[in-house]
Amino acid sequence: MASAKFHHFGVPTAAKAENEIFIEGAGVHVTDPESHPYGIEFLRFEPDSPMPGDLKTKCHAAFMVESLEAALKDQNVLIAPFDATDTIRVAFITDGDALIELMETK
Known about the structure:
Number of helices: 2
Structural class: mainly beta
């Protein structure tokens, strides 16, 4: 895989946080990991969120990559690429029991 740089650690939660951002298509409220001293992103899912159960219950590590297409080659894709924000496109893969988010700047 092409180089990947650690970006954040995602943690599912039921607790509402200040300054959450709602990602409508995913049905999830997220915090900004860049504002957390340890790079933690908290994810609070709506009951009708279409996201897979693993994402709703397991923590994940997130990495910035230059190209999602290249990074996803020969990987076990859990969630195909989608626009998380106006500037970020993401996908999720699994590697054994590890859940990994891959991110690219649009």
